[in-house]
């Protein structure tokens, strides 16, 4: 005869199993909006059946089922989609950072606009054109001084802003290194905790979700790969081991990340985007502005000095010969007056300005128009300024190339002459070779100052457009992969409500079965054997 209480045991197991399923459903619903949460399902299996006892085997057909039980609670997660997400997320971090940096550089350069650098440069050249029309006009000289000061201030400001942006990126790299180290340490601790819990036979589903969320966040900061063994996740950045089981193998810093970018271990992610932005974009555009100013102020410029010009006493010029070669020629005495047009190479705006004469008396040759700020050693966009001598006295602006001897035998400047003002204004359209003495790649090797700056703006526009396109595409890919992950791991409230009803009905039915067996047992225990009493 079978066990009298077998039915109650089957009902009890059913109640416990359906209750676990209801609890898990409630857990899923509660975490439907929890970032990184993966839905869980109770794995129900039929309990091991009992065979009717006998000497050899059961003589009763079949085996007696023992109801249902659950062996574990499964977390629905697909590693393939996680790997895809990490691969796309690292590229999103890279390009979104580059896009943000280029957007800021565009705001600094502020072109095309009516308030950008190009307008101040244009105003500077126009002021010289106006001065050439009335070289004796004091107002025109003051305008040249003010336009020059506005131009240098604009370049100073742009250079400072680029330097500040570079410093901000360096600071952010350190912040991201700290953020990554925190995630790495937490992953190692979770590895240890998961190993302990699952070693006892339990499912550490929620801890695994926390660990995977940390991996998602880390994948946007740096490029990572990982493998899983009995000790947990082993995380690498290229060939650099970051996490090994419950131990942090290496910590990150600004210097180590910079070295990893050089070696190729760091090749994507937000940090890589910051390094590329700082060392390529920001440094590159600062170099371009420096190259432009340096060439403008003291670079080799070919120009033609007009016939009748009186070269300042003792001046040595680089003369361009008819065969294209150059030679050095010194001018003194009566030989200072040019008998024909002379093609020469001068040292930029400063070199040409010094060949003219100021409007003051006694006769005084031109001073360098641009000088360095105190403490600076070379001309850059940050160090350039207008000569204080000109700022204090605009009459020191050179406009004339002619002199005469007065009745007292004193050489004086011809104040109404505008040859030098025309030569200086004409530098705007001169073709110049833009090459940095310390080496480097300029955006344009040969061209005018205006063409050079327009090339800078054009290059910036193309790079910004490409970064925007890449960031947009990567965001689409990340969203698509994440949508696929949510389709597998995400919680559907409709599905959970349906499951809740299903498990509730099963629980109620199991309870009804137990009540039925209770009534049967009551009849057996309290009613049997009472005949004749």
Topology:
Elements: H1 6-30, E1 40-46, E2 68-75, H2 79-109, H3 117-133, H4 138-199, H5 205-221, E3 225-229, E4 232-237, E5 240-244, E6 247-248, H6 254-263, H7 270-298, E7 300-305, E8 315-320, E9 326-331, E10 342-347, H8 348-353, E11 370-372, E12 384-386, H9 388-392, E13 403-405, E14 411-413, H10 419-426, E15 432-433, E16 446-447, H11 449-489, H12 493-527
Antiparallel strand pairs: 1-2, 3-4, 4-5, 5-6, 7-10, 8-9, 8-10, 11-12, 13-14, 15-16
Defining traits:
alpha+beta, 12 helices, 533 residues, four-stranded antiparallel sheet, 54% helix
Can you describe what's shown?
- The chain is of the alpha+beta class and 533 residues long.
- Helices cover 54% and strands 14% of the residues.
- It is built from twelve helices and 16 strands.
- The chain has a four-stranded antiparallel sheet, covered by helices on one side. Strands 7-10-8-9 form a four-stranded antiparallel sheet. The protein has a two-stranded antiparallel ribbon with strand order 1-2.
- A hairpin with a 5-residue loop joins β13 (403-405) and β14 (411-413).
- It is rod-shaped.
- It starts with 5 loop residues before the first helix and ends in a 6-residue tail after the last helix.
- The mean pLDDT is 89.
